[in-house]
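Reviewers of the previous submission asked for a worked example of the structure-prediction workflow described in the proposal, so we include one complete record here. The input consisted solely of the amino acid sequence. No template or homolog information was supplied to the procedure at any stage.
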Amino acid sequence: MTGAPARLLAWLAVMATLLTACTPAVDLTEPGSGQPITSASAAPATGDLEPAPLPSATQTPVPPQPPPPPAPPAVPQAFALNLYQDGDFVPQYTFDWCVAASIQMAHNLIDDTGGGTWASSAQQSELWEMARARSSNSFNGANPRGWAQVLTEVGMGPYAVVSIANYEDTLQTAARAIAETGRPVGLVMWSGRHAWVMSGFESMGDPAQFPEFQVTGIRVLDPLYPHGSGQWGPSPEPNSLLTPGQLATQFVVREPRRWSTDLPAGYLLVLPVAA
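From that input alone, the workflow returned the following structure tokens.
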């Protein structure tokens, strides 16, 4: 039996050696805490060190933007203005009363309220006498100064007589006056012998936008219609649209001997001006 206990002791010694090799030599938890112990090689807490700087991004300078291109210049468009309405035309009742009839028509063109048309023969005679009384060197008739003064006195003015040497400038001046004032222009026709009314125009370009607009058509009222003149040609129908060339056959430079005045020779207008 002594041999058996000796073998048992030897077996127990071997088992103890094996168990000792499988048990860790150091406890991995702090006593009583149950938390793992941080090893010396672990990273420090976040607040212990400053964060590493981020690499700076390269700033690319932005080149200055060029200014926007200028807007293209406005292109003149077709423009038209006409003061005429049915009933505005008045014929002259004698071959002398063209200025008086033109004054009546000017009133009708300006007054678009329908408050009363000036058209009677008696009134035309009265206006003729008024214009004659305000005219001088008029060959016993009415001259453009008397015409302009009566227009002003009866409440359609102010009007002034102007003489312009250049034909195209004359048409521009007349058209611009109609557009700015809303009143018609008197045309001194036949080298100072007759009166027409310009009631409107057509042009390339609005006079309010283009200083150098081109007049392409002229609206006219000839109080002598339908008679006309054997020397100067037929009277156009009321509200006719004439080309500059057609108007130029009867609208010519005033003859200086027809009317003594300080105005230079040129195309005569009885022109509405701003009050």
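Confidence is low (pLDDT under 50) at residues 16-47. We consider this example representative of the routine output the project will generate in years two and three.
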